[in-house]
Amino acid sequence: MGKTMIEKIIGWHTGGDVSPGETVWLDVDVRTARDFGGPNVVRNLLKHYKENRIADRDKTFFTFDTVAPANNIPYAENQQFCRIFAREEGIKLFDVDQGIGTHVLIEEHIIRPGTTAVGTDSHYNILGAVAAFGQGMGDVDIAFAFKTGKVWFNVPNTVRINLTGIPPSNVYPKDVVLFLLSKFGASGLLGRIVEIYGDYIDSLSLPGRITIASMGTEMGLISILLPPNDHIREFYKGIEYREPVSDPDAKYEAEYTFDISKLTPLLSAPFEPHNVHPVSQFEGKHIDTGFIGSCTNGRYEDIRIAADILRGKKIKDGCILKVVPATRRVYKQILKNGTLEELFDAGAIVS
Question: Is the whole-model pTM more than 0.85?
Fold first, then answer.
């Protein structure tokens, strides 16, 4: 019987064929802890393991992105606690000046298609953007992964979604994933892996794929896995990796097809992500604050779109627009090519 993407990835990291419902010990290629959860990971390691606490230093990292930089003394002390441990154990640490941990791991090619990774980040499944399996876990599990390089996992069922058509030019990847969120809600695909196919998915560059994959948590998914396309192959050109591709006879729990050719811009209204409506329903409604950033929309391409819209305009008095680039690399890009200046002139706060 053919295998899905997740069945292949897990099989490669367990040494045999796997099927949905099986519980396996999974070899983990990358293990990380953030500044949120990281201190407790360290405390668990110190408490339960007296020596040889790190299975493989080349596969173990800290990423500081939750409070960057620390805005109070307890948080600063927790970050320093992790810094000292990382220094003593010889672990690479991406500090508060580097950006969102998952984005940095992708930029640095630490995460590659077909790899497995766990960390103390609820949106670690964003790694599905590059056809990698990422999973957020608690501090006890991550401490165990640091120590052993393994975690146990139940092999999940996979649902296939086919998107037909190409949406209008004013519709972006966030609109597409909000459309899916409106169809399935926060629990309609709970605990599943979702593979998405179609000409639109094939056309997406890395930032758009990140946007779609990052919303898997809001849908209650384990992960959205997007099959590699030419953009991903170019991004990893010259780097060794194994490309997970579902077999033609792979068995899916369910399959859905949606036409997105007539999709319109969408938004999530308070107070739930799946409270999705056409943007047109809110036209003219006053807002106090706008935000562009986060793991979902903090790439250069997202920020550039906003700058293009704002060119020659001013943000309305009484409204604040905050822009937070996802990583230091993205910040440098908007700094060097004038995007930051355009946003500043329009009245945005860029941090």
Answer: yes
Cβ pair 90, 182 in contact under 8 A: no
DSSP 99: B
The total number of structural domains that make up the chain: 3
Count of H helices and E strands in the chain? 13, 16
Report d(CA 280, CA 66) in Å as an integer.
33
Report in angstroms the alpha-carbon separations of 77 from 72, 84, 95, 140: 9, 10, 14, 21
Separation CA 109–CA 56 (nearest Å)? 18
Question: Angle at which helices 328-336 and 339-346 pack, to 10 degrees?
Answer: 80
Residue 64: domain span: 5-154
Q: What is the pLDDT of residues 112-147, one digit of tens each?
A: 999 999 999 989 999 999 999 999 999 999 999 999
* Alpha-carbon dihedral 144, 109, 105, 189, rounded to 10 degrees: -80
In-domain check, residue 214: yes
Q: Backbone phi, then psi, for 145, in 5-degree steps? A: -65, -40
- Using alpha carbons, select from 218, 228, 227 the residue that is nearest to residue 189: 218
Residue 216 lies in a domain: yes
pLDDT in tens, 269-280: 998 999 999 999
State whether 100 and 145 are in the same domain: yes
